[in-house]
């Protein structure tokens, strides 16, 4: 997983979130990178107290900050602003369409700090840019597999090529479940602890079935058969049946599969002729829902068995 960042130019080019930013100074710094989704209103940093300034964050100046700078004697305000701009600040954004003081423009131009303006109110802009940064700076990865929505549970199917992941997904769609992604699943980490999977735009709604080719599930089965994105809640790996391998027969031990540092419930299902994998996957999703409600079938069975063994006198089963 690579460290994700955005350039200030990415902020200027936004059309989806309505940030409505324009550059007024510091064009030489539009290549600066933003790594954090958190913003900062500098406040006391504009009085010369910079101990808690986070220059890596987007700095937002509203009506209070601009009014404060304007009511200061220009020489003193220039000293404070120059000290503020000595830090490697990613960018400064002035809200409410206010015209930044000339000494702020001069300092930003001199230090190559992008100075941007938006007509939006501070509260509105902070909400929008926080959502924008959180979405664009989320940790991401891509996984070779199939993601399906089974009874509302996001199930990620893994397994080597040709083992039958896509065929299982197609059968699940026929049963009324929904396809999210086939072949490549793009995963984003939503804070604080959720993984959202979706398909690449070029292959969205499509599934590849050997012998039939590429099928458009949306066109074949309708919009109720697909989802654009889904939170991944469990991982099922399909593996070739190995008679020498010992497989879990009770389900007492809950295994986990780690993606982007988050652990997900993990089940390994051996594949061999005669096994109805689609039914097994569907039941696994139902069992996952039961566990979420605090009901663990295997452990309840074990507890009943142990209780029966403890209560039955020795030799009671012999006549």
In short:
This protein has 319 residues and is of the alpha/beta class. It folds into two domains: 6-136, HprK N-terminal domain-like (Udp-n-acetylmuramoylalanyl-d-glutamate--2,6- Diaminopimelate Ligase, Chain: A, domain 1), CATH 3.40.1390.20; 140-304, 3-Layer(aba) Sandwich (Rossmann fold).
Folded structure, characterized:
Mg(2+) binds at residues 166, 208. GO terms for molecular function: ATP binding; magnesium ion binding; phosphorelay sensor kinase activity; protein serine/threonine kinase activity; protein serine/threonine/tyrosine kinase activity. Residues 136-304 form the HPr kinase/phosphorylase C-terminal domain. This protein is α/β, with parallel strands linked by helices and 319 residues long. The chain folds into two domains: 6-136, 3-Layer(aba) Sandwich (Udp-n-acetylmuramoylalanyl-d-glutamate--2,6- Diaminopimelate Ligase, Chain: A, domain 1), CATH 3.40.1390.20; 140-304, P-loop containing nucleotide triphosphate hydrolases (Rossmann fold, 3-Layer(aba) Sandwich), CATH 3.40.50.300. The chain is built from nine helices and 19 strands. Strands 11-9-10-17-19-18 form a six-stranded mixed β-sheet. It has a five-stranded mixed β-sheet with strand order 2-7-6-5-4. Strands 8-12-13-16 form a four-stranded antiparallel β-sheet, with no helix packed on it. Helix 3 packs parallel to helix 4 (102-111). It is elongated, with a radius of gyration of 28 Å. The termini are far apart.
């Amino acid at each position: 997983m690579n460290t994700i960042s955005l350039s200030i130019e990415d902020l200027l080019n936004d059309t989806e979130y309505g940030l409505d930013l324009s550059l007024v100074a510091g064009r030489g710094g539009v290549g600066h990178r933003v790594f954090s989704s958190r913003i900062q209103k500098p406040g006391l940093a504009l009085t010369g107290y910079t101990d808690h300034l986070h220059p890596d964050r987007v700095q937002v100046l509203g009506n209070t900050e601009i009014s404060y700078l304007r009511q200061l004697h220009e020489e003193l305000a220039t000293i404070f602003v120059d000290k503020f701009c000595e830090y490697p600040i990613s960018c400064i954004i002035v809200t409410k369409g206010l015209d930044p003081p000339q000494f702020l423009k001069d300092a930003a131009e001199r230090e190559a700090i992008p100075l941007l303006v938006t007509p939006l109110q501070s509260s509105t802009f902070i909400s929008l840019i926080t959502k924008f940064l959180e979405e664009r700076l989320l940790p991401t990865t891509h996984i070779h597999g199939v993601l399906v929505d089974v009874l509302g549970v996001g199930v990620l199917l893994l397994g080597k090529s040709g083992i039958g992941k896509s065929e299982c997904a197609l059968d699940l769609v026929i049963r009324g479940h929904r396809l999210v992604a086939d072949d490549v699943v793009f995963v984003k980490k939503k804070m604080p602890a959720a993984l959202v999977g979706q398909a690449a735009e070029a292959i969205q709604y499509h599934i590849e079935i050997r012998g039939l080719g590429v099928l458009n599930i949306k066109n074949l089965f309708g919009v109720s058969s697909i989802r654009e994105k889904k939170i991944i809640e469990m991982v099922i790996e399909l593996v070739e049946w190995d008679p020498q391998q010992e497989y879990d027969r009770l389900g007492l031990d809950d295994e986990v599969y780690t993606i982007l540092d988050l652990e997900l419930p993990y089940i390994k299902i051996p594949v061999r002729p005669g096994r109805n994998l689609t039914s097994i996957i569907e039941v696994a999703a139902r069992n996952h829902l039961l566990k979420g409600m605090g009901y663990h079938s295997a452990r309840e069975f074990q507890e009943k068995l142990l209780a029966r063994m403890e209560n039955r006198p020795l030799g009671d089963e012999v006549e």
